[in-house]
Design goal:
- The chain has a single domain, classed as 3-Layer(aba) Sandwich (Rossmann fold), CATH 3.40.50.
- Strands 3-2-1-4-5 form a five-stranded parallel beta sheet, sandwiched between helices.
- The chain has 163 residues and is of the alpha/beta class.
- It starts with a strand and ends with a helix.
- Helix content is 42%, strand content 19%.
- It is built from six helices and five strands, in the order βαβαβαβαβαα.
- Bound molecules: coenzyme A.
């Protein structure tokens, strides 16, 4: 049986830190689906479609990775699609409490589910989408932190908003 996992997140935008987890996660599973959550409470900079397009562009070199929107609960998506594995990245210790809460809540809602954690690579421990957004907002160089299509999208976005 194929081992399929999802990697959920807001991806506003996807960064090289996420790609590090994806590149390593795809070696563990036969298929990896990047699930782009609405993240309404975070008031994302990019629309769902824009975030999906950026993920698509960033993962095009990976043949067993795909992307899909996540409209509702993560466990509902997993049950509907008969998927049992959730991949998450751990950066610093500060991620741990939140990740534990997510993993336990999801496990309570769907007992077959297993959350698999990959430790972030050194270079990306302090990287986050909001740090990238802030650097780009002030016209800083984000080329080390995001794939080139994301860099271009950030430039376009902040040019449009008059930055
Ligand atoms: N490299 C770089 N940055 C990383 C990272 C990595 N490896 N891993 C996480 N991050 C960053 C993200 O960029 C994001 O940064 P930001 O907050 O500055 O924008 C931050 O860490 C957390 O983001 P993310 O991992 O995307 O998690 P999230 O909190 O946005 O998403 C969901 C959490 C989507 C998985 C969760 O809300 C969910 O499952 N939602 C669906 C609804 C649901 O089922 N809810 C019940 C859950 S119990």
């Amino acid at each position: 049986m194929k081992r399929i996992a999802v990697y959920p997140g807001t991806f506003d935008p996807i960064t090289n830190g996420h790609l590090d987890i994806i590149a390593r996660g795809r070696e563990i599973f036969d298929e990896l689906i990047i699930l782009v959550a609405k993240g309404e409470n975070k008031h994302p900079l990019f629309t769902m479609n824009e975030r999906i397009e950026m993920v698509k562009c960033a993962i095009k070199q990976f043949n067993n990775v795909s992307v899909s929107p996540l409209e509702g609960l993560l466990v509902s998506f997993l049950k509907e699609n008969n998927i049992k594995f959730v991949l998450r990245g751990l950066r610093a210790v500060s991620d741990f409490d939140y990740e534990l809460q997510l993993a336990f809540t999801n496990k309570n809602l769907y007992s077959d589910l297993e959350t698999v954690f990959i430790m972030s690579s050194n270079n990306y421990i302090f990287l986050s989408s909001s740090v990238v957004r802030e650097i780009a907002y002030f016209n800083g160089d984000v080329s080390k932190f995001v794939p080139s299509c994301v860099e271009e999208a950030l430039k376009r976005r902040f040019k449009k908003s008059g930055r």
